[in-house]
Automatic annotation (TrEMBL):
The lineage of its organism: Eukaryota, Fungi, Dikarya, Ascomycota, Pezizomycotina. SUPFAM superfamilies: RmlC-like cupins. Keywords: Signal. This is RmlC-like cupin domain-containing protein. It comes from the Eukaryota. Residues 1-23 form the signal peptide. PANTHER family: LIGAND BINDING DOMAIN PROTEIN, PUTATIVE (AFU_ORTHOLOGUE AFUA_6G14370)-RELATED (PTHR43346), QUERCETIN 2,3-DIOXYGENASE-RELATED (PTHR43346:SF1).
Amino acid sequence: MKSTFCGWMLSISLLALVGETVSLAPTSSIVVDTAPNDVRPYVLPKYKGDAIKLTSSQTIRFSITANSSGGAFSLLQHNGKVSGWLSARPHTHGLTHEHLYCTRGRCQLWGQKNATNASHEARVATPGDYGNIPPGSIHTFQLVDPDSQLTHVFHPAGFEKLFHVFSQGEHDTHGISSPYVPILDDPSPFGPMTPQEYNRLVSLDLYAAPEEEYIPRRDFVNGTAGEAQQPWHDGPNHPPNDPTTPYFVAKDWGPKYLNTDTGYKVIQPLATPTHTHRNFTMGTIIMSNKLANESVSTATLPHHFALQMEEGQLVFQVQGYDSVKLLHGDVAFVPAGVTFSYHATVPYTKFMYMNAGDRGLEYQLLRRSVPWEFPAYPTSPGFRANSTGSKFTQL
């Protein structure tokens, strides 16, 4: 049943990607209240979008969906208060590759390759920490601060349907749009697993791990637990060169590169083509503010692109639309082949990027970048990476 379902889902995803049409409507606003039902450029402001209650207090917002991305990838924001229970049964996916990014508060993350003697890893994630969960990896997560947000990215898109199926009602995002429902009584939504529920979850690409075989470990020391004894906020984090092994990267402890084409950009890849069979990339970019004598950065990418703002302010303009100023929490989506420009208006502007392929925005920037040791750029303008890619020269 698993192989049949995975093959069906893959066929649907491929058909969506091949048959999609991009809707460009220059006379309409690029800013929307909900993710569109077709592929077009759009900006979704923070806390907007269709949303549901995952539990009495926890909410899920749908910022990028299978419809709005043509099946390429989806982006959800998961908000809630501290809970004494897991937000999902420990499980694996047959097709879906999941990426977890802590945006606010703290979230506990678990991941284990579904193989004999695989390392059972766990992390306490704080803002900027990341987890990569390939298909077949056992994983789960939990919100552990009074105000936490975990960003979920799925590729290919479609897994978000599960949250609609198990929704406990809509969450209003058209009014004051509270991050989540502030309610004290929010018990665990999970009861005993029945064969009917198991089969229903399988139809949605979720395979629950037997409770007697997988018990999430909680023996954290300095925010980490696992047999691999890898650094976590205390040393460089080196992702494995293996697309089947789950891994975690602490904020600013992964690889970093400096680009000096237009202003400064510090690129921190989190998921590279090596980790996703070359069909998705994800990471963060830190930018210096645009000076008067500098031009804006432009790009026309062969794959769908999206970003989620983390810090600062970004002026973002898509061909055919007026420019907009993006702030923390805003999401932007640009279809393949559509030109866009961007520049920061304040120092240290940061966004999380997503590309539905192996030649996204960071691919263009990294070709002219050098290894860099810091999540900060030089303090003076005019530095350029030299041709050797190992030092810097001043103009």
